[in-house]
Amino acid sequence: DTGVSQNPRHKITKRGQNVTFRCDPISEHNRLYWYRQTLGQGPEFLTYFQNEAQLEKSRLLSDRFSAERPKGSFSTLEIQRTEQGDSAMYLCASSPNRASGNTIYFGEGSWLTVV
Amino acid sequence: QKEVEQDPGPLSVPEGAIVSLNCTYSNSAFQYFMWYRQYSRKGPELLMYTYSSGNKEDGRFTAQVDKSSKYISLFIRDSQPSDSATYLCAMSAMNSNSGYALNFGKGTSLLVTP
What we know:
Number of strands of chain A: 11
Low-confidence stretches of chain B: none
Number of helices of chain A: 0
Helix content of chain B: under 10%
Mean pLDDT of chain B: 92
Strand content of chain A: over 45%
Radius of gyration of chain A: 13 Å
Oligomer: heterodimer
Strand content of chain B: over 45%
Largest sheet of chain B: 6 strands, mixed
Structural class of chain B: mainly beta
Distance between the termini of chain B: 37 Å
Number of strands of chain B: 11
Order of helices and strands of chain B: EEEEEEEEEEE
Distance between the termini of chain A: 33 Å
Order of helices and strands of chain A: EEEEEEEEEEE
């Protein structure tokens, strides 16, 4: 399977706990994105990496959220001190580094439920 | 007002019908337009990608972009029950700083009945 891979697929956690999601992008895709999607809404942009550099962060990415892509390959998204409002599907996506614009491919998502 | 507006439906059609889905947007900087299909509790799957204005056809799917009206459409011919899903429009500006990050509509829920 050469698609975007996300783990874990589902996570149930108690409020106040920390959670971490992992994303393995399509091989050789330089660009990596994290999005969040809640029921009945389209995905919302959280952050973007070009190789290992985090180039853009949405205002949705509060201080409790941190994302890394240490070697320009896989990425992690950590949520500290989770709140019930963090319950959502967290989507990772990747795209090749073409000169202008490109198609973005999504993984299957990681579902987070905060109880 | 959101930058991308999409009627959430639901839209119910009989098998074999032509389906028309559409989105409007307000940001004239958008240059790249995509349609994704999303099944329940799955990630979005890329269906169509169009740059700037014009039409693009791929099998039973046709994507249209009218930048003058800030309006995009997806047509599905000979719809099948397996087309039942949520269809998301997405678009981005020529902003390399954000990696051409996408702005999505809410998605339209489509049900094709046998």
